[in-house]
Amino acid sequence: MSQLSPEESPLSAERQAARERLAADRTGTRELIAALSREYEGIVEANALVAVDDEHDPEGSSTAFERAHVAALLAQARDHMADLDRALERLERGAYGRCEKCGEPIPAERLEARPAATTCVRCAAAPRRRRP
């Protein structure tokens, strides 16, 4: 009976699959950040050419909303990228796929849907405690 090398073990295959999922998600997120950055810069540049009085100009409020909306999406995408980077660090440490709250394994289906997940479904669904 032949033994599998460490690189061929099922655990290594799972780690490689996780690494590929995280890399694919990072690529998509990087592209989203670039697109949103271009959109935001376009909004800012377009508004720089026009003297907008947000209070009295009917277009001013929608322009401000659009700029704020794109800025929020951009911040969300950057936060997601940071989450993916932390997931890669957990993968390298051997902690990837374990719930940070209870220590139980995170189901593979959850990691496929949310590669940067840090909690199992049960812990994620638990109500959060509010600080006094």
TrEMBL record:
dksA C4-type Zn finger ranges: 99-123
GO molecular function, one term: zinc ion binding
Protein name as annotated: RNA polymerase-binding transcription factor DksA
Keywords carried by this UniProt record: Metal-binding, Zinc, Zinc-finger
Cited PANTHER family: RNA POLYMERASE-BINDING TRANSCRIPTION FACTOR DKSA, RNA POLYMERASE-BINDING TRANSCRIPTION FACTOR DKSA-RELATED
InterPro entries named in the record: Znf_C4-type_bac (IPR020460), Znf_DskA_TraR (IPR000962), Znf_DskA_TraR_CS (IPR020458)
Domain Zinc finger DksA/TraR C4-type as annotated: residue spans: 94-125
Listed Gene3D superfamilies: DksA, coiled-coil domain
Region: Disordered, residue numbers: 1-24
